Amino acid sequence: MNGKFKIFLISTSRAILEDVKKFIPVEEGYFDVSLISSYNALRRSSLQKPDLVIIAISSKSDETLLETAVEQFGSQNTACVDFVKSYALTVKLIKLSVLSYFSMPEESTSFSDFIKNKAYEWKKKSDIEKLLNIRKEQFDFSNFIGNSDKMKEVLKLVKKAIEHSELTVLIIGETGTGKNLLARIIHQNTYSDIKPFVEINCASIPPTLLESELFGHEKGAFTDAKDRKMGLFEVASGGTIFLDEIGDLDLNLQGKILKVLEDKTFRRVGSIELLKFEGRIIAATNKNLETLVEENKFRRDLYYRLMLLPIYLPPLRERGDDIFLLAEYYINKFNELHRKNLPKVKGLSLEAKAMLKKYPWPGNIRELRHVIERAVILTNNEYLTPDDFKFLFEMKPQTSIQLANETSTNIHITFPIESASLKNLEKELVKSVLVRVSWNKTRASRILGISRPRLDRLIQKYRITPH
């Protein structure tokens, strides 16, 4: 779709063409009107694609042009203005199923309004197409940044998810690895036109309210249900519902989600009517669902249903040199945003690259984004240097930790002698093990030789967080 509404105005009479053209508001700027006054000229235009064809009929030869135009461009793209006013012509126009026809000059105002309405519809469609193109570019999986072997495996599975829209997808990954973005990429590349993408964080809403959010409710279903409410499954029908942090669902809601997965039906709270869900479910979690199943915190049958197409998003520390591709992407992005009138940052120095590679990135891509944004805003350097990132490694004076390289299984913890208390050692040991195993608490408790509840108490006692 180009920048102007293209009209072919056709008649054997140049005078008639000029008269009809007066009713087209070309002064508004987005009309492109071509005057065609012969059969040969009409045939030469057959490869073009006008948005609207108008035949002005004032003679028998114009009727021949009418038939040719309908043949070339289709009846639903062709309108007619009639200067003859014969019954036979009216019958012919009806048989040809033209888009619309007007008796001139009596219906000249209606004709002018018709042109304006068609142009408005075209512009609205054009705006939607532009929006779609922006969204497709934004969520184009081919632009998903990463050349590491692990990301290549991710992209293979993403392609499968796009090819098989009937499959439920489970995205597994730590906080900040891009699960939400990946869900949007799958959705946007699955559907060729605008379909709903509805997301909800299952951990952010209490279970008593979450059921109503997901499935809706009838008026009077509970105390505050003053009106019927559509649930998110209804809103997302025809598109995608993204259930983020599905591992936090309680067992009751897990059973209801399982029913939707099994037979694509659900009920509003307080209703006996079965509603159909015509769409796809994409779920995501940063938890080990297999461990939750063993602990009877997650339904085994739901786990198996979700594992039809699991996609594991690796943490940033496992993606090798992808970190540099991502960093360069964010440098360019924040150059445009924050340094419009300042010299642009050209990239990372070799020393900065080594520094970023060493850092464990507990917040993953989300943390990298904020770190690069801060560095781009504050730096006075042509290339970002270790000084621009030293805040990442600033520790309290009494404690310092040095992790071994990524391929090592060792953890090194060093203290000034005056701070080497058992309490500090315990805290930093627990913290270091959690970081090294990507906050897999089951694995961490096994390495530390303590129970999972004991590990949870230590995390709470020392206020240890992933960030």
From TrEMBL:
The keyword Transcription regulation applies. One of its GO terms (biological process) is regulation of DNA-templated transcription. Residues 144-377 form the Sigma-54 factor interaction domain. One of its GO terms (molecular function) is sequence-specific DNA binding. Keywords: ATP-binding, DNA-binding, Nucleotide-binding, Transcription, Transcription regulation. The keyword DNA-binding applies. This is DNA-binding transcriptional response regulator, NtrC family, contains REC, AAA-type ATPase, and a Fis-type DNA-binding domains.
